[in-house]
Protein 1
Amino acid sequence: MSALDDLKPHLTMPGRTTLSALPDGLDAMVLPEIALAAGAGGLMHVCRDDQHMAALEDQILYFAPTLEVLRFPAWDCLPYDRVSPSADILARRLAVLARLVKPSGKPYILLTTVNAILQRTVPQSLISQGTFTAKPGERVNGDKLQRFLIDNGFSRVGTVVDPGDFAVRGGLIDIFPPGATVPVRLDFFGDALESIRSFDAQSQRSIAQLKILVLHPANEVLLNAASIASFRSGYAEAFDGMDMNDPLYESVISARRYQGMEHWLPLFHGSLGTIFDYVPEAVLSLSHSTAESMAARQEQIEEFYDARKEAQQKQSFGAAPYKPLKPARLYVTPSEWQQLCADRTVLEQSQFESPSASAISFSGKQGRSFAAERAEAGGNVYDAVRQHTETLRKGGKRTLIACWSEGSADRLGTILRDHDLAPLVVAKDWAEAAKHDVGIVSMIVLPQEQGFETPELAVIAEQDILGDRLVRKARKSKKAADFLTELSSISAGDLMVHVDHGIGRFEGLKTIDVQGSPHDCLLLIYAENSRLFLPVENLELLTRYGSESDGVQLDRLGGGAWQAKKAKLKERIREIAGDLIKTAAARELKSGDILLPPEGAFDEFCARFPYEETEDQLTAIEAVIEDLGKGRPMDRLVCGDVGFGKTEVALRAAFVAAYAGKQVALMVPTTLLARQHYKNFVERFKGLPL
């Protein structure tokens, strides 16, 4: 790009440069080139919000898969909140800061947001001084390792679940390092570290052997002797003395964590820095609308601070006192922001052409939207897409159609081929798409909300064709068994059911000595105050008692009553199963109409669904469509919580039945629900001959 050649001289000089005609999507192609030109100093790009940052990371890695991309998020709570940021967010922030403290000497992109860049960070000394390194074969004092973990913000638990957790079980120490996707297991023989293995937190199965383990602090607030002393003196200075009636103060000096204590972060560290301290030589890039987002955030910070100060003068019923620190101690002020940018190369992006002669134009523009064709009665959006791609290719532009997932790419590709869009091929990555002839339209998987065009390239987004795509992140599939897999899901006093011993009451986690070694166990109380210690690794033997707990009688430990209950229940299940088998056999003997989804039309109808189907939803849809094609009475119940997609299963079944010439009746319990479903059905079936 000639624009990049024009830009390179500006990267070595402080000052602001406008990058014009750089719409969303095209920036993901340009930013890696800027990062490579910037070298080891790096490129820090400020996104509008977390959603934009996550999408941009995926887009950059599509066009530049070998480039290191770091993502530094803001706390996921409001300014001056009473709740703490999530452990995952804190871990991700600290992992990125730890990476920045030790430069790799290679180009990289640091993605952050307006909220994150305005929020002050922990000092670099916290990261550099709080590092632990171990390799298999070395001698590691287990007690000192546990002390390090506690002093650096890790939480001791029965079973590691979240980043920042650690668990001790005899000669094994499980740790979930900040920034890691899976925990690691350290296997000791005495003080000798025999192995380090990553493992799956749910199944407990090993994944891979590791050659080295490097740990950094897991929390921005550390409750060690030095930080508590700093808090004590900082609190007295900020609020004119100590206050034992303040639950925050009382908890911290007692070395106990307090919900929301991160909002007094400067008191624990004396003073805070900024993200600029970690990237002193990085080029700063600002996405469009950053100035507006920054002004709104700074105004919000002031409003929340003023609200807390005002509330101090009023009595809050039942609420603990809240003494806010001044905004300048927690956040970058407007004047400080200007000073931070003054001696740095700053690139300001704009989606539009700039009249300024000093602006560098990348000649991009937002791609065409097919909203008019979607709204037109009797119009066909897919024919319009075919005609548009023909025009683009005649103009010598490489044409890509970007879809959200492989499934949506396959479905949309099938529909477009049915409408004679050819040649249309799937490209697994950008390198493959770039090799295709200009006359070939490439289907790619790229999370792009809107398409864009340059003189050489056109990207049509799935959303341009089908309308808004409300994409949900896929959930990890779980088995139907109701076994407990983590201690965080139960609390003292809960009734539990043991597979072999029956109903008992959970009293907490206890550490007992087994053959001279400490072992974490769950304590269950049974009738006559009998006690059962269940090792945490056998947690799958428990299920939560599923009914009201009032009046429930605990089983006797070692008695025969529980086994008698199980035997009686098994017999009752056999009787019910027998009745169900007879009913199913009678249904199999009856015949009915075979209803099959119409080819092409069914795919187009499915493409109107504005979500990415979940795994369970697809399973339910396929099962229902298969039932309709069997030619026998259906016997299927689809269960799911509110908002999990049951209506879409019914919509697709109704489409198949209606296209086969059948009438469809939808029965609902309330008039309000009938109106909602009527509106949904009218919207989804609009323009169809039904």
Protein 2
Amino acid sequence: MTFVAAAVCPHPPLLVPEVGRGEQVHARAAAVDAVRRLCAARPDRIVVVGDAPAETRYGPESAGSLAGFGVDLHVPLGPPAAGPPAAAAPSLPLSLTVGAWLLASAGWSGDRTALGVPAGHSPRQAAGLGERLVAQVRRGERLALLVMGDGSARRTLKAPGGLDERAAAFDAAAAAALAGPDPAALLDLDPELAAELLAAGRASWQVLAGALLAATRDDTPTEAWSSELIYDDAPYGVGYLVAVWNRGARNVVGSPAELPPGVWRTDVAGLAALRCGSVDAPGVLLLPGYAASKEDFLPIMPAVAAAGFAATALDQRGQHESPGPDEIAAYSLEAFADDVHRVIDALGPGGTGGVHLVGHSFGGLVARAAVIADPGRIRTLTLLSSGPAGIVGRRQAALRTIRLLLERGGPAAVWAALHAVERPRPAPTADFLRRRFFAHNQTALMAIAQHLLDTPDRVADLAETARGAGLPVLVAHGESDDGWPAAVQADMARRLAARYEVLPGARHDPAADAPDALVAALVGFWRSPGLPVRRPAPAGAEASSGVG
């Protein structure tokens, strides 16, 4: 694998807070978000590409300065361990200086270099630079590009170059190409027109186009790349565009549909995750249940983000795409709870202020353990279709059978049994469910099943911890939940002095059955956790073929 991801960002000095002096710069959050997503692609090396007076390659010992903008700020390209810039090291131009600041802001600690691209390079010359970047990647290395470039600087009368009626159309063409991704359209950007419009990003964007064409010519077709344009505006009469390109990000849940707009795949503290929403928004951490995964929360994540929250859905240790050890002792509830706290620490601005923690089914048992261990970084707790102790009823019997089958025949025996009684599903969904099930660590499946069977009642411990920390708690479930009976969950809410909601039209998985009702309940609770809520009487439970 070679070229794996790219982020495109503008480079106004105002992006750096010390230069902006408190001015609200909306492109800043978008740019930092894009670079964090770039880092989440797990590259081995990031090359920062930006306009420069001459074609120049910069090592990590290089640095830039923002002294020309009234701030005595030294910005090294490399991490602090790289030391002060060498006397002979070339000074970074503005575009690469801002790029270096973005890498530092995103917390990138890996290898990085930079490439300065003259504004006078033709599309062919610029694309050639991108092709060479890809050709020079070592076997097995993962390369990512951070491409710095402004659009036209002639969008309004007060713009640096004054108004040019052609500027808006030029920027729109660039935005459409970045949203594609469409490398051919990027190469069609006219260098003479770009020069007249003072569009500093044209040549750098065309380096990116050359890199993608080289990568797709040699291995992955262009259609296997996904792209998202996450910012497009001209607040100072200058076109600012922020975009993210990722290789292999389509169809990650095995269905014909792509991930919903604004949702991206990443890992957090070594665990596979899906994220959605501004990283500076209040954080929400979503924990799935047994034999489940982060993808189960896709129906609610965009709406949670639209309500002003940053949602992160996890594969817990040993689930789906998260690694897990083969020792049963590694799957204690305490170990799962420790993972939760490591993830909170790693979430950045949305996590450092604490998160709204949501645990579904088994995820609720983990969330409870995390709160009892340390409630300090948790804003609210939601126990969704979860219970006070081990699961009961039909799902209890199903789990005992699954546990026995796992011991005697492994996952294949369990899958055959489940498939025999499962309702038919569309082929792409069925394929994903099969791949997901066999991706789970077998030891994790056995350990989690045992937790669901014999976890003791710790409601009193949770109530004492929540009361002492002033932690609001919500207990919510579907009106026909066939996991823990409604009466059991209602009694748990009473013992916790918790808010209690029954979600109409849902069974054990409200995110799939009633996503709108679930989002409304969650967002209402997060915004006003102290308000009482009407508690509808639960309907009679109807059993499903699932296990929890």
Protein 3
Amino acid sequence: MVSALSPETVLQNRYRIISRLDTKPDGKAKGGMGAVYLAVDTRLSCEVAVKQTINENAELSEEMTKAFEREAKLLAILRHPSLPRVTNHFIEDNAQFLVMDLVHGNDLDDVRRDYGGWLPVELALNLADQLLAVLEYLHSHNPPVIHRDIKPSNLKLTQNGHLMLLDFGLAKGTVGLMSQHNDRSLFAMTEAYASPEQLEGEITEARSDLFSVGATFYELLTGQAPLHALTKRAFALAMRKPDPLCPIHELNMDVPVEISRIFMQALALDIENRPSSASEFRRVLGQTEIENELQTVQGDEDRTFPLFSRSESEDRLVTDTEKDLIKGIEQLRLRAERAEELVQEQRQRQEAEKRHQAESARKQREAEVARQKEIKRLKIEEAKLQEEKKRLERAIILEEAKEKKVTTWKRVGVAVLTITILGGLFWLASGLFSSVSNTASDYYGIAYNCEKEMDNDCALANFSKAIELRPDFPEAYLGRGTAYVNKGSYDDAITDYSRAIELRNAFATAYHNRGVAYARKGNFDNAIRDYNQAIELEPNDASTYHNRGLANAKKGNYEQAIKDYNRAINIKPNDAGVHVSRGVAFSKKGNIDQAIADYRMALKLDPTDKDAKNNLEVALKEQKLK
């Protein structure tokens, strides 16, 4: 297997590797068919980007070699301000390398996250115009150059606001490089952005790229990737149900309806319903006037979005191709029905497991009640035996006083009798205690009930017992961490949440709770880092956005805090607490009118909210002073 290059590695006695460029904020590689490095061209004394093939086999496959050469030759003959320039291509140590201009900036995935989840509409339209301009150029070749992997992470925004289109590893169509009809890729496309025809392995064309443009800007304007074109949307249409893909303007009310409809048409499953070309797509976007757009939320309106002209042959009779398409959709529907059956079976198994766990917990509770009753009974019996022992001792003393003589065996006999009786009692008690054997799930169930009753000591003891019996129990670490937070032991809580994350990497709740623990300690940078990770794993959790807003507010970053509160309110509009928090942020920024509006909304949602009432009184006084 070809491994990643280390810093200071020199290739071709010319290119010195500095660091890897294609990594996420957490340091992990973003994936794909190659790795990209920052390097120095020692001959020209300039920085360049070097792309390396990453192959899981010992030898480069012929297909990977052709794909990499195709990208090199494609970029070498293309000339456009939004495309990187290729300067060299070579093979070294069973790996292929591509040398190109270094593009400074952030990919649109990172830009979107920097804006709090989605891009401003004006910026998105500017970027869409730049992307469609470069696609006009690519599609104008004969035959057209089809990119086939347009997505946010393959688009980079430079510091001067210029968009660059990267990664032509899946591209097709340049004369002399490959057959125009060889359309099946060895390397996996990103399914959320791929057109139905590409997912099915059919022939792609320029309008396939336009589908990916629509999918890309759907995520950039909503913060959510669109539904899978085949498994979700095509199945629904085959069942004669409405397209389940929610329009952009319903998820982001800042997006005008007309802009939303243009991008939604690009996402049409039928290729004939999409824009006819990148030029047409760009023209219609350019004609739309944002400032005059009515921002209304549409209900169950027609989602075919007929903005672009159709050919006059749309009323023709059903062709053999359409029959094949209908047959394919029917097969897809049958597969989807089977998948639904499997999901239902899994749900039934999960429900059965839940019932079993509930029954086990119930039996455990009953056994605990019975044990406590028996302990109480044994204590009563012990008290009686102690009293009887004292009575016998008093009788012996009286007998000695009367007769002045008592044999040793009598006293010994009484003592032995007493010890025997007590010993039997304690043996019985110890047998009772040892007769109950609990599982980790049983202790977890008891701890969960203790936690609901706010009995933190009970919760800690039982979560710890569950972990002792099952050290790889992430939910138990999560529960014990929460109990530690409730007791104010934040370092212990952070340790338990970290262990839960080690056991289950994509554990959004553990990241969120660890962020709360860091925030309670006053470590707001670490808290924000964990909230970011939780949001990446679970982007629709209002409480995480609320808590990240509180952390940003503590740092004095009220602008970012307001963005987080806005996102939380979009997800959960009826949360009075978020309105109070946003009101405080607006007040800190001097926007008293907006703060008053938020406090009033909080009181409307929860008339008993004391913070909202007190803050409103203070804000009204400040407003009068102004």
Protein 4
Amino acid sequence: MRREWPVILVSVALLALGLSHFASPKPATAAACIWTGGAGSNWGTSGNWTGCNGASGNEPPAAGDTVTIGSALNQPTITGASVTVASLALTSGASLTIASGAALTVNGDITLSADGGATTTIDNAGTVEATAGILKTNNSNSTGTAQFALHGSGAWTLQNVTTYSITSLTIVDGPSIRIRGNVSRAGILDPGTSTIVFDSGGSQSLSGNSDHNFYNLEIGSGTTVNHASGSGALRIRNSFTNNGTLSQTSTSANRRLQFDYDALDYPTSNLSGSGSTTVARVEIVSNKTVNAGGHSITINNNTYNSALRVPWTNNGTFNGGTATVTFNGDSSAAMDGIGVNNFNHVVIANTLNAGSADLNVAGNWTNNGIFGAGTSTVTFDGGSTSTYGGSSTTTFNNLAVSPGTALDVGANALFNVASTMTNDGTLRQTQTANGGTVAFLNVTDGGATARYYGVDITPNGSLGSTTVAVSGNQVCSQATGSPVRRCFEISPTSVVSSAVTFYFRDAELQAGQTLDSLQIWHYNGAGWDQVTKGATGGSGEGNFVQGLDISSFSPFALKNSSPLAVTVAAFRAALHEDHILVTWETVSELDLRGFNLYRAGSRAGPWTRLNRGLIGSQRPGSPEGSSYQWEDSDVSAGTAYVYRLEAISLDGTPSTAGMTEATTRLGLRLWLPLVARQ
């Protein structure tokens, strides 16, 4: 037995090898299938192919086969089937149609070739998915631009896309195309009205020396698109939605985010998404409006030649929505263009040179770097409160605050203005006033030249943290008539007696008022109290009136007399034999044009004006008073009447200073709602 054992082992081994050979035949090799179209246009019909596997060699391609489609008489259509191939090539003039409900999966390259004559086309109404490889456009002749087209509104998923030089790829019918790899451009790509979506969830890139043109561009959550090589711009015709990251570096003078493609046909581009967008620079052409919505942009042009890196060129309109634009470049080049720049929040993280470009700012201004104002005007015009801050002091060229807008400096160091300061809204500043004279909102050019004065406060002790608001070129809402067109609000933490100097401009002094005769008035919540007056003086930007021993802080106004249209000493009604005699007396008529007298059966009205024409002031502009009367003959005995007296100021404004009521011995009630009673 010992001698036979090795022989048995060898025999068993040989038998096992033989069984294995016959049980697993060698798999068929991948075929190189070529479309002939000899039996029609159906992809799945035998006889339309050559070079494929199968008994006849003309069976439809299998999953591992490569496919080439030439310019045969009949071009293929995939209908009602799901087809998978290893790679796909279309030569000049060839076309492939994927019908609705059909699907094509390509596990490698899609190569489109043309010779400058006929267009090479893929028409997709179903589904095209490339799981790997590159979609390439090749010029097979180089004598003219090779033309390619992707048609159809079906579902497209591509991996990488490369357009070579002297080629032109047009996307037709506005499909949405998912790209999960990289895009390299040397040829032309016309996006039509398509939506290109980068959504691999990883890192993808744009490269090449031709511009990357998009109609709608989307970046999905978790996806980063890097545009860091090549000289091409990223051009957007319609919308940009970024929920991931766009990172563009400035190693090329031409690399930028550009909103300009067919600006006349597509005049508006809208931005959206919660992602991060960092670009080398922004360019908006004429007739183009860009609406940022809530999508913020960072401009980071730190690498290329500093003198050539214009960070912002706008010849159209930019609307900042609720977004923030951050300038993080160190470029010495100035902003460019003659367009309208409506920013929301502006952050200067490095350097921004405005040049001659004007900036409208609806939100906040934060300067942590260098702002070169050039000849620009910065206007805060959001209609609400904008904050000014940052670690650097900003020197504006021209600065304007629009009506209805407040610019709040907070506790930051005050800005400078090199040329003109215009406050038609409100300026607000907070400082600690604990002794000595503290100047609020006194703006200079950064040197000795004053551009705007607010107030000076000298407390007899500590007011603590104190906020001062100066509303320019406007009358306090509680005042009427013709006071100085500037309103002052002072809000200290603690109250101590203080001297306050109130400043105003020549242009804010209204007719009938003079500097020497101005008085200071403090609104107590119901009326105006006169403040003890100190010195007056100044001129131009710095006229001033000083108030002494002020210990009540709230709105302050400057006026020769009380900021009411008229001071009424008495308002009476008396019943005579056939009429009611209404009488009133004034103490002063410095700002009075005349009166209107109204009557009603109750305070709720309706009111009837008794005088056809204005009851004229007897002493218009005079510090002295007069007496008036009106006979109301259209009355009935035993009936109650309510009378209302309306005073009209010199500028035509009705007085709204308070109300009073009187009752006659016969039960006649009289009501004076719009003038003060002494």
